[in-house]
Amino acid sequence: MRIATWNVNSIRARVARVTDYLSRADIDILAMQEIKCKPEQFPRAEFEALGYELIIHGLNQWNGVAFAYKKHIQVSDIEYEFSQMPAFNDVFEARALGATFDGVRLWSLYVPNGRELDHPHYTYKLEWLHNLAATTAEQLEADPDLQMALMGDFNIAPLDTDVWDIAEFAGSTHVSEDERMAFEAFEQIGLTDVVRPDHPEGYTYWDYKQLRFPKNEGMRIDFILASETLAERVSETEMVRAERKGDLPSDHVPVVASIS
DNA sequence: ATGGTCGCAACGCGA
């Protein structure tokens, strides 16, 4: 089984790129983020034509997460989680979607950006991460053998080498001590980044602006964090840099784990 | 080429 996560930056703008990738990459379950549409706007037919079913969690134009999975996979326990934005109390967001696929519990996650260190969304980001870690810890305590993974855009660069020039990020979000501690908390409750051991270097995101991709000025902010029993089944991983090239790419690339 | 981007409900805002 091959699982992948991809921040697609609008599925309607990206449907050709995503379905083209799926037609070549033998992905069984794709977690998507930033679909930027409501369920009724999702281009379902193009995925169904390739033999994928969909689970869509979108509420508005600015985020939303989803899964595309091969038809033969058994799905249960779908959970649609809602986040409430600070300062916009009537606006809810779709940032987390969970489901169990053939016994493996997966989450598609779009962690809040944080904006600036002194912005209310930064506090929101830390609280969101704290809540996620607490919920995940409870589940792993209840079942230490749980095969599960958190997959998605964490909007955190855990190491200095996960950005092209750490000096440029002084005082910025994504690299702060608090965000990195929030990320490490997932490791402390028993989750492992299953990609980094195979690929200690490399980025998953390059801004569209300022020729960041041609200059390889990227960030590593998309991760697959697996529980022990799932991590030990991982045989191979990749960060698909080629998906940042060519026409109309997302600013993020797919991150993939093959599971035996 | 010394500044160069996308996406959306958009002529502004978020990433």
Key terms:
DNA-binding, alpha+beta, 260 residues, Deoxyribonuclease I, Chain A, globular, 6-stranded mixed sheet, 12 strands
Question: What's the CATH H-level homologous superfamily?
Answer: Endonuclease/exonuclease/phosphatase
The number of distinct structural domains comes to 1
What characteristic shape results from the CA principal axes? globular
User: Which CATH architecture would you pick?
Assistant: 4-Layer Sandwich
List low-pLDDT spans.
none
Largest sheet: 6 strands, mixed
Number of helices: 5
Question: Could you say which structural class the secondary elements and strand pairing correspond to?
Answer: alpha+beta
CATH topology (fold) name: Deoxyribonuclease I, Chain A
Structural account:
By secondary structure, this protein is of the alpha+beta class. It has a single domain, classed as Endonuclease/exonuclease/phosphatase (Deoxyribonuclease I, Chain A). Helix content is 23%, strand content 28%. The chain has helices at residues 11-25, 44-48, 120-142, 177-188, 228-231, and strands spanning 2-7, 29-33, 52-57, 65-70, 75-84, 92-101, 104-110, 148-153, 192-193, 222-226, 234-239, 255-259. The strands form two sheets. Strands 3-4-2-1-12-11 form a six-stranded mixed sheet. Strand 1 (2-7), helix 1 and strand 2 (29-33) form a beta-alpha-beta unit. Helix 3 (120-142) runs parallel beside helix 4 (177-188). The protein is globular, with a radius of gyration of 17 Å. The model has no long low-confidence stretch (mean pLDDT 96). It binds one DNA strand of 15 nucleotides through loops.
